[in-house]
Each structure stands twice: as structure tokens, then as C-alpha cells.
């Protein structure tokens, strides 16, 4: 039994429920027979990955759905061995190279080189049906076929540079056979590009130019602010905005109808606003509401996520007491959120949102300015807990002073 968000995911660009003009633009881009490297950016839950997969189906057909998980190993110049998970078909490979940290450059270069040099076959010449035709992985790259799951190259932390280099080099060095209905290139999908090191991004720029003839790169990110200008200028930038509240409501009611449920408009609007126009979260919340109570009611409560409740409680603890002991307790709670894979920027935004509720106009401005400073430092550093804790400590300091001044006026 699959989740609604996966079960009802559109497979074609023509079946997208919103941003029809963008879908038409991508369709024309594919039908032109060739396209440049793409930088696809937009907020979480806007449909970036869904459109990327639909774009690949337009290019290669349903062969891109025959996915496999590969464990690819790389060796750094210091002889350190690193491993990263990738999702691949005969036509494309997907990786998040930031998982290997400072070695992301090596991963990017080797991956694209290998991909561009491998031989692509049509279904009749599928190497899985002809073992004698299968290519052996190049030296230094070990492949282990496992479960079919999505991957993130940032799984290998500071070694993401090596992973990206090796994977792109592997993809780009493969020769694709040009038969009827086939493309002359393969595709490398790099996710969370904004988390790559500057070293890896510069290496990616050079690799993109070198293997342009046999490899196209689709870069996916939430924001382009941390992507270097050299990469942005070499890609066709495609922004996918978040759907409007009305568009999210329409999608939710369509999904509910397919599931044989009657979703009231009032509840659909409440879910849309609760999800902050994140369609993936909205569909998950709708399914959770059905499990919680069905038939639906107009005044039905939309549950908060566990980590959101935990973050609200953390903010309340910060406001209730400002002391070194409480700061240590809050640090532990922030660590717990990070270990449960809640992104640090999401924690920062949620924490600021809850804290300013307890501030007046002048203090609210000061806290917001303070949050912007520490959030910027967060994006520049590698240890997010340092910046989160520093923000909390500074807030405690100015909030305690604010309370003392307020009490002194009485």
C-alpha cells in the first residue's frame, strides 16, 4: 500500500495540475531535440522532482522508471575510500553529492565522466538481457546493486566533491548509441546543489563544459543564492514556484475524489494554509486526517507534526527561563531535532516564528535582525548546532534585559 503522495504523482508533463505554461515550455524544450544544462529551483513541495522525472520520461520513455540503487565507491587522492548511494536507470543517474562533504568535487567529476563514457542501449540491447555485453565498472568505482530507493550524495558528508567528480566522469565517458527515438546524451541529476562546496561547484563548471556532447546535467535546488554565478550562467534557469492555496485545494480534492473520499472545501483550505503551500506536505496531512477521522468534518482539526510541536515547546522553554542550565537543555533539544533529519534552516525559521510571538514591536525588530545574521552564518558554516545555540543564547540575553526593563517600569 503506497502513500497518496506517491500513488497520485503525475507521470507526464501534460498531466500536471498547475503551472501549465511551465509544463508546455518544458515539453517544447524536449521536442526541440536538444536542450542545455538545466538549473531547476523552487521551494520544497513545489514539484521540482516530479517535473524532472516527467521530463526524463518525455526524453527516454518509461525506461527511466526501471531504477536501481547502486553503491558507488571512490578513492580520494589521500587513498581514503568513500561510498555513496545513487539511483540510476540506463538513461540517467541521480545523486546528492553533498553527502560526502569536502570530497564532493571528486564524486562529481568521476560520476559524470563515467556516465558520459558508458554505452547506452535501447530495450532490445539492454545489457541486463545480454550479460556478455555488460560494461565492467571503471577502476576505482565499485558498484553494488541493492534496493531501489532515492539517494542523496550528501550522505558522504565532506567527501561529496569526490563523489560528484567520479559519477559525472563515469556518466559522461559512456558512448550512447543513437537509434530511432533515442537521444545522443545521458542525464545526471544532482540534487541539493546549494549544499555543494565551492570547490565542487567550480569542478562541476569545468566538467559541464568538457562533457557537453554526451551528457546533460539537471541541477535541482531550493535556492540559487549559494550556487556560484559561473554555474548559473551555464544553465537554463527554470523556477518552479509554490502552488497557490487555491491550486493546492484543487489538487487535494482531486486526490480525495480518486480515493473515494469527499473533502469539504473548508477543510481543504485549512490543510492548504497549514502546509504553507507545500503540496507534498498537504497531501500527507490530508491522508493523516482521513486516518484520524472519516467522514471529514468542516471543523476537523489538522494535526501538527511531532517535530513542530517539539519545536514550539522548545521556544516556550527559552521564553520561560534564561539561564546557562536552560541553554544546555535547549541545546540538547536542538540536537534531537537535527538527529531526526530536520533541516537546520527549517529549525531556524520555526524557532524565530515562535519566539517573536513573545516580543513587542521594537524587540521583534531586533530579534528578526539577529536571526538574519545567524541564519547567514548558518549557511556559511558546517556545524549548524553552533549557530542555532548562539542565536538562542543571544536571544536569552536580550529577552532577559527586555523583561528586567519592563518590570522596572512598574
Chain-wise SSE layout:
Blueprint: H1 4-7, H2 20-31, E1 38-41, H3 48-60, E2 68-75, E3 81-88, E4 92-95, H4 104-115, E5 117-120, E6 143-146, H5 160-172, E7 174-176, E8 186-191, H6 198-210, E9 215-221, H7 229-232, E10 236-239, H8 245-258, H9 265-274, H10 279-292, H11 306-320, H12 324-339, H13 344-355, H14 361-380, H15 384-408
Parallel strand pairs: 1-9, 1-10, 4-8, 5-7, 8-9
Antiparallel strand pairs: 2-3, 2-6, 3-4
Helix pairs in contact: 2-3, 4-5, 4-6, 5-6, 8-9, 8-10, 9-10, 11-12, 11-13, 12-15, 13-14, 14-15
Rg, rounded, reads: 24 Å
Distance between the termini: 62 Å
CATH architecture of the largest domain: 3-Layer(aba) Sandwich
Please give the count of helices: 15
Tell me the domain tally: 3
Shape summary: globular
Question: Percent range for helical residues?
Answer: 40-55%
Residue-averaged pLDDT, rounded?
79
Highest-level CATH class of the largest domain:
Alpha Beta
**How do the strands of the widest beta sheet line up side by side?**
6-2-3-4-8-9-1-10
* CATH fold description of the largest domain: Rossmann fold
**For this structure, what is the CATH homologous superfamily of the largest domain?**
P-loop containing nucleotide triphosphate hydrolases
Structural category: alpha/beta
Instruction: Write the H/E string, N to C.
Output: HHEHEEEHEEHEEHEHEHHHHHHHH
Name the beta content range: 5-15%
Main pleated-sheet profile: 8 strands, mixed
Give the low-pLDDT segments: 119-151, 175-181
Report the strand count: 10
Organism: Tigriopus californicus (Marine copepod)
GO cellular component, one term: DNA replication factor C complex
Domain AAA+ ATPase: 34-246
Region (Disordered): 118-137
Amino acid at each position: 500500500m503506497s502513500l497518496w503522495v506517491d500513488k497520485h504523482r503525475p507521470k507526464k508533463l501534460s498531466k500536471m495540475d498547475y503551472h501549465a505554461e511551465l509544463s508546455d515550455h518544458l515539453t517544447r524544450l524536449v521536442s526541440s531535440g536538444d536542450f542545455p544544462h538545466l538549473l531547476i529551483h523552487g521551494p520544497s513541495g513545489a514539484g521540482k522532482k516530479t517535473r524532472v522525472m516527467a521530463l526524463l520520461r518525455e526524453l527516454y520513455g518509461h525506461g527511466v522508471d526501471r531504477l536501481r540503487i547502486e553503491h558507488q565507491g571512490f578513492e580520494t587522492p589521500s587513498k581514503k575510500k568513500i561510498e555513496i548511494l545513487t539511483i540510476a536507470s540506463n538513461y540517467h543517474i541521480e545523486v546528492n553529492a553533498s553527502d560526502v562533504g569536502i570530497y564532493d568535487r571528486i564524486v562529481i567529476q568521476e560520476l559524470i565522466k563515467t556516465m558520459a563514457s558508458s554505452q547506452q542501449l535501447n530495450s532490445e540491447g539492454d545489457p541486463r538481457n545480454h550479460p556478455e555485453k555488460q560494461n565492467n565498472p571503471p577502476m576505482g568505482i565499485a558498484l553494488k546493486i541493492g534496493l531501489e530507493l532515492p539517494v542523496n550524495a550528501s550522505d558522504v558528508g565532506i567527501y561529496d566533491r569526490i563523489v560528484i567528480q567520479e559519477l559525472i566522469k563515469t556518466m559522461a565517458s559512456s558512448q550512447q548509441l543513437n537509434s530511432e527515438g533515442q537521444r545522443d546524451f545521458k542525464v545526471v541529476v544532482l540534487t541539493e546543489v546549494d549544499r555543494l562546496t565551492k570547490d565542487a561547484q567550480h569542478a562541476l563548471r569545468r566538467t559541464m563544459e568538457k562533457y557537453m556532447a554526451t551528457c546533460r546535467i539537471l541541477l535541482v535546488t531550493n535556492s540559487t543564492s549559494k550556487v556560484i554565478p559561473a554555474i548559473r550562467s551555464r544553465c537554463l534557469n527554470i523556477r518552479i514556484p509554490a502552488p497557490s492555496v487555491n491550486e493546492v485545494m484543487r489538487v487535494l480534492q482531486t486526490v480525495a475524489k480518486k480515493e473515494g473520499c469527499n473533502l469539504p472545501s473548508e477543510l481543504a483550505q485549512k490543510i492548504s494554509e497549514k502546509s504553507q503551500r507545500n503540496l507534498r506536505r498537504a497531501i500527507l496531512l490530508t491522508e493523516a486526517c482521513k486516518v484520524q477521522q472519516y467522514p471529514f468534518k468542516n471543523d476537523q482539526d489538522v494535526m501538527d507534526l511531532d517535530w513542530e510541536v517539539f519545536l514550539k515547546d522548545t521556544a516556550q522553554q527559552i521564553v520561560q527561563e534564561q539561564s546557562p542550565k536552560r541553554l544546555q537543555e535547549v541545546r540538547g533539544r536542538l540536537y534531537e531535532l537535527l538527529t531526526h533529519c530536520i533541516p537546520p534552516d527549517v529549525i531556524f525559521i520555526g524557532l524565530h516564528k515562535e519566539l517573536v510571538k513573545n516580543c513587542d514591536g521594537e524587540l521583534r525588530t531586533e530579534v528578526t535582525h539577529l536571526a538574519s545574521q545567524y541564519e547567514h552564518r548558518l549557511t556559511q558554516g558546517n556545524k549548524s548546532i553552533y549557530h542555532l545555540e548562539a542565536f538562542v543564547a543571544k536571544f536569552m540575553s536580550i529577552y532577559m534585559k527586555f523583561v528586567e526593563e519592563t518590570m522596572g517600569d512598574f
